[in-house]
Amino acid sequence: MPFTTILPPPDEGVLLSLTRREPVLLRVSADLDFDQRFNRVHVALTATRVLVVADGRVLQCHALAALTTARADELYGSGRLVVIGADGERTLCYFSRNLVPEFTAVARAITELVAGRPPLLPDLSESCYCERCQAPLAERGSNCPLCVPRGRIFLRILGLMRPHRRQVVMLMLGTLFGVAMQMLPPLAYREITDHVIGQKHLQELPAWIGLILGAFVISSACRLLSQVIAIRISGRVVTDLQSRLHEHLSRLRVSYHHKRETGELVGRVMNDTSELQAFLTNGIPYLLVNAVMLLAIAVILVALDPLLALMAFLPVPVLMLGGAWFWKRLIPMFHQRDSRRGRIYSLLGESLRGIKVVKSLNQEGRRALEFSAANEQALAAHALTERTNFVFFEVLSLVMQFGTVLVWFVGARGVVTSLGHHPSLGDLMAFAGYIAMFYGPLQWFAAVLNWMTGAFAGAERIFQVLDQPTEEAQVPPPATGADAPQPILGAITFRNVCFSYERGKEVLKDISLTVPAGEMLGLVGRSGAGKSTIIGLLCRFHEPDHGEILIDGRPLGSLPLDGYRSAVGIVMQDPFLFRGSIIENIRYGRPQADFGEVVAAAKAAHCHDFILQKEDGYDTVVGEGGVELSGGEKQRLSIARAIVSDPRILILDEATSAVDSETEQAIQESIGRLVQGRTTIAIAHRLATLRNAHRLAVIDDGRVVEQGTHDELMAREHGHFATMVRLQGEINRLKSEQIVEIA
Amino acid sequence: MNPSQPTAVTAVTADPAIPVLSWVGDRVHASFAGAEPIPVSLVQARPLTDPDGMIAIIDARKRCVGEVASLMELSAGSRAVARLELERRYCIAVILRVESTLVDFGSRYWQVVTDRGARRFLVRDPQRSVLRLPPDRVMLRDVQGNRFLIPSLSALDAASLLAAEPAL
């Protein structure tokens, strides 16, 4: 059972002795004691009692028969579990915010037991800590970035290049050949020094010079070729990946997007892929080049002179360990610099977007000061990063020079004195040439380990998105034979539906509603009551936690998603228009609609006239960067879009709340035509606009608190709806009086 | 009742807008102008910048039914009730020592010792979750919504400051 915590021995013993005759249904450990210190306190629930145990003592024991309900309160930085009985409220325990879902479930289970119902125990096995390293996780059950198996990600990155196998082989061959060519010049220097100069064989000089030149030219050509191929492969891979990510993101559930900011996802599509591209372009080819070069040079150095090779290798541990040490300190500085730069960008953007507000409140000077302060901080972070970076590379260069100096010192003595090891002058020249080539890749490896971590983290985030199941994957395959898709008539039933965006924070509680096909249901209630969530569930943006939604008597989850969605039309409070012409926007849901249908829809939605007044008529480009439309105009276009889609189920989510009274009247007329013969669910704050609804449901705190026809609800003098109508009438009357007074 | 819970108190204040606070079970109740006490929650209007300032009194329907400019406006008994309730409601762990931090591409892992015990937590999006408050206080909000306060950066020991700096 996932909902069970193993208690420490003293508490386990106490619990066992208390519950010998009755099984413990669930037990959960809180991480704060009554003084709100980080200690363990355990709550156990049996069929008759709820117990609180800590430090081998029973702190509280309540008979369920004496309780009426329980709840979990979210406090500032913590939470508490409260039971309510005849003598008031009792706090059972405190817990950190990490455990809000667990204790909300405990509270629900207590409430269910108190009411004599079997408790619903959700699976909360997904922890907010990594099971392996115990590091806190950003999201429950998500992968721990600290435990990401780098090897597996690396293989997966390489897997992205599989469609470009031939080019990858060419890249590798070009790289290897280029490295081989780079190895030749130092050997040629040795021959020139020892043979051409030392033994005065001048006739051999042109051949050696030709060899050196040829090696340089071929090596450059190979590098150029490798780079071109690498850029081509990485560009292709990243472009494909961005397209895949974009498509995948648009196919994920709305609940996935609900938890994430748009900026974060745009960052994944653009920044993480760019980081990966940089790694594919400048990382993987050089990884190969430098690895091969390092190995080849090490072998050549040992072959040339083992003692000198030992001298040359002496700084290697310092370079590697020192490099890793430095990079560990540099990376946070890069982050801080980027973060402060980000702050400047956001301040600048805010100043420009809010220019009218800034000017109207005469706050230009304050904004300038804020910007300057942020700019100074960014400069300080930049200076610190650059200074440290510079010191880092200078220190590493110095360490490298020690190795070179040591080789020259020992080598030169050997050449002159011919004592012990006595390399020739040519050997020493060649050695010096190889050392210069040897330390470069070493330094690169120290840096690339951290660089790779960044690229891998980006790749991991990309793979996390791609590994998310799409909506289609979560929906059962379409039925066949007798259960073949049937046309949707539009009868809607919500049966005991519960839903929460975040585990433990229930937004809808036991919602039951019925809307016969072709009828209109009005949803009313305060902001945040749960009306839009009901609509989100109806659109299948989310799945209910409990209960079911039926369409024409069939479970919504069993209907093919694309078929169902095309039967649903939605007109939102803030209609979204895509960048494109008006005609494209109106027929967005049914691109095959002909111009006649578009015009008919535009006329029905009262937008034909204003469209024709635009210079480019139906070809007017709207949306981002296009012609500005008023709220009412956008709203009417979205109604026209819904008409063209011809949905069986129509959802009107505050469709007229953002427009003036005159426009509202026009839109109401449009809506009046639109709803004819369709099942409609309408949310409206202006209650008068729902007068034509067949039925109304009042939602309060996620529950249906009242249902009935307009007249039935108005007849309840102290009912929720009648009170709301009365209040609204009062407000309207006061507003009218104010207008008259001003006039 | 919790071990540290004071017994119910009653008091009368001259100003009818100033409530009398009392405990009924573990729930604070407020009575205005001698009326029947109602269950309420106490909320600091400015928990970050002036936690000792205005306290709002919120009823069960989440409506503000009263407020006091500071706890000093309350009678001694009500003040004790309010103090304890606010202490319980505002759980802010004060960081005494920063053991280590790890910055891993957007995530900042903190290992700290607080006045409530040792804790490891994760902060993301520092622009929103790391609040620098005058003169040099820092309020951290982890990914779960837990709060951690560094009362004074300059008062941290050198090792803690060195560890904290990269993650701020």
Descriptive notes:
The complex is a heterodimer of chains A (743) and B (168). Chain A is α+β, with helices and mostly antiparallel strands. Chain A is built from 22 helices and 19 strands. A six-stranded mixed sheet of chain A has the order 13-16-17-10-18-19, with helices on both faces. In chain A, strand 6 and strand 7 form a beta hairpin. Chain A is extended, with a radius of gyration of 36 Å. The model of chain A is unreliable at 1-6 (pLDDT under 50). Chain B has 168 residues and is mainly beta. Chain B has helices at 76-89, 126-129, 158-164, and strands at residues 20-24, 27-31, 38-44, 55-59, 64-68, 92-104, 107-114, 117-124, 130-133, 137-141, 147-150. Chains A and B meet through strand 6, strand 7, helix 9 and helix 12 of A and helix 1, strand 6, strand 7 and strand 8 of B.
Q: Which two chains share the most extensive interface? A: A-B, 47 and 44 residues
Total DSSP helices of chain B = 3
The quaternary state of the protein chains shown equals heterodimer
How many strand elements of chain B? 11
What's the arrangement of secondary structure elements?
The complex is a heterodimer of chains A (743) and B (168).
Chain A lengths: L8 H10 L5 E7 L10 E6 L2 E6 L2 E7 L3 E8 L4 E7 L2 E8 L4 H15 L35 H11 L4 H33 L7 H47 L2 H5 L3 H43 L1 H8 L2 H38 L1 H6 L3 H54 L7 H42 L4 H4 L17 E11 L2 E11 L4 E5 L6 H8 L7 E6 L2 E2 L5 H6 L1 E4 L8 E2 H5 L8 H10 L3 H6 L7 E2 L8 H15 L3 E5 L7 H14 L4 E5 L11 E6 L2 E6 L1 H6 L4 H23 L1
Parallel strand pairs in A: 10-17, 10-18, 13-16, 16-17
Antiparallel strand pairs in A: 1-2, 2-3, 3-4, 5-6, 6-7, 8-9, 8-11, 11-12, 14-15, 18-19
Helix pairs in contact in A: 3-12, 4-5, 4-7, 4-12, 5-7, 7-8, 7-12, 8-11, 9-11, 9-12, 11-12, 17-19, 19-20
Chain B lengths: L19 E5 L2 E5 L6 E7 L10 E5 L4 E5 L7 H14 L2 E13 L2 E8 L2 E8 L1 H4 E4 L3 E5 L5 E4 L7 H7 L4
Parallel strand pairs in B: 6-11
Antiparallel strand pairs in B: 1-2, 2-3, 3-4, 4-5, 6-7, 7-8, 9-10, 10-11
